[in-house]
Give the backbone structure.
Amino acid sequence: MTLNAQDWLGKISALPTARRVRIMNVCGGHERSITMAGLRSALPRNIELIPGPGCPVCVCPEEDVYLAIQLALHADVILVAFGDMLRVPVNVPKSEPRSLEQAKAAGADIRPVASPQEAVRIAIENPGRQVVFFVAGFETTTAPVASMLLQGIPENLLLLLSCRLTWPAVAMLLDSGKPGFDALIAPGHVATVMGPEEWAFVAEQHAIPAAVAGFTTVSLLAAIYSVLRQMLEAECFLDNCYPEVVRPGGNATAQSQLGLAMQVSDAKWRGIGIIPASGYSLNARFAAHDARRKFTGYETEGRKRVGEMPPGCDCARVVLGKIYPDECKLFGTACTPRTPVGPCMVSDEGACRIWRAGGVKSTTAIE
């Protein structure tokens, strides 16, 4: 028998979970589905759904965005990037372009793309110019970029890579001793590529219930029910509530291509700091396509000290699940989707933008 959303809500409500239970959903896509379906208001009041570090635009280092802006303005390149990245603000005086969008308005040749193939096409169509592809994303974005590299790309196409792995941020929270959540909903799209086993450490090493979920209301409610059952029965394991797509071992081809084109390295997350083995960089065989090697005069130590969240912006704590989006004092006033101050209000996967669009208001502080 296939259960629908109403069935799962009934099963969840029937569970004897009297105490407060905090469930973190890692993925920005999950947060969007949860918010747009109104799940928070449909679930029992003691169950809190906490948005986590699942927005690559939100954690992209400020100095990487700044570097992309400077290259576009001063290096005579065509700068291409996924659309959300064009509106991410950096910390510079208001008299200077504070985003790629503003740099484009100032005359820079900046073009949004929806796929790596578009970046290749632009490079082929402009053989006399250098094209810099500014890439921010998690594993599901990085794998197609790796495939693009292995298929062969034009000599004039360079990559400014700012890609991250998802699980190390959760591991950092758990290792801190104060994770702020009692159970975890793991991202189904990442597990599809990398395999669900990547998330087994949550249950095995930290005795925290975990379940992989897809993006439908039914899959999310099944995952919520699973982690609540695990908690009540004191039996923690990783449950796969997205079996139609997520298979043991993940996508071996995608993983192989990532290994051939990329290497895992320590990486900075905006407002959070360096998380060990949490980023991707190009393998040595693709060094000729590394924009950081080509343009060395634009990254300075001074910029690295600047590269945090804007003053008053609490995006870092939102990303880590330490506060709800509307607990930031700038939320909905100085910071809106039309006039974003921090990156979480920019992306469709940013919790602040999702909450603002969905009219969500928290009723309980996390800390």
